Amino acid sequence: MAESHNAEQGGGTYGSAAASEGWRRSAAARAQFLTPITERMLDLAGIALGDRVLDVAAGTGEQTLLAARRVGANGSVLATDIAARMLAGAAEAARLAGLGNVETRVLDARSLDLEPASFDAVVSRLALMLISERKRRWPVSTGS
Questions:
Q1: d(Cα 56, Cα 62) in Å, to the nearest integer?
Q2: Could you read off the pLDDT of 48-99 as tens digits, one per residue?
Q3: Would you say residue 78 lies in a domain?
Q4: Measured torsion, CA atoms of residues 14, 3, 81, 123, in degrees rounded to the nearest 10
Q5: What pLDDT sits at residue 33?
Q6: Is the sign of the CA dihedral 48, 30, 94, 129 positive or negative?
Q7: Burial class of 31 by CB neighbour count within 10 A (0 to 12, 13 to 18, 19+)
Q8: pLDDT average, residue stretch 3-25
Q9: pTM confidence score
Q10: Which CATH number characterizes residue 20's domain?
Q11: CA gap 56, 64 in Å, rounded
């Protein structure tokens, strides 16, 4: 049975202090590995100056910061995650980077209560693998 996650639970496993600290400590290595892939994701999403971007399951926000730099001061990025501690790290990173166009909000990726017309683009870098109850639309090979 999948663990239930919601804002009241602080993000379950992903919202623990240990998990948040682990993600924070590994940010530089993760950024080195994922930045080219993230840039490609932002290219494919067509993110440009002035856009309003929703970052679903933003975690500690490395991709949030890249998107915020792309959209510039006249654009905005809303970083959402189920784990408040992760988003606190994202908000702090945005503040330290001088990015005033980032907002964070604790929301579950499975039930976003947001107006779709509020955004020009939606991105999500590492979320799908963490949502256990998503439906598979492809056959799974068992190696037989």
A1: 12
A2: 999 999 999 998 899 999 999 999 999 999 999 998 988 999 999 999 999 9
A3: yes
A4: 110
A5: 80
A6: positive
A7: middle
A8: 55
A9: 0.76
A10: 3.40.50.150
A11: 10
Report pLDDT for 125. Answer: 85
Residue 24 pLDDT: 65
Sheet with strand 102-106: strands edge to edge? 102-106, 76-81, 52-55, 121-123
**Which domain does 76 fall in, by range?**
7-130
**Contact residues for 101 (Cβ-Cβ < 8 A; gap 6+):** 68, 71, 72, 73, 75, 76, 77
21 assigned to some structural domain: yes
- The answer to whether 80 and 112 have CB atoms below 8 angstroms apart is yes
Is there a domain that residue 1 lies in? Answer: no
In a domain, 141, yes or no: no
Give the angle 122-75-35 at the CA atoms, nearest 5°: 55
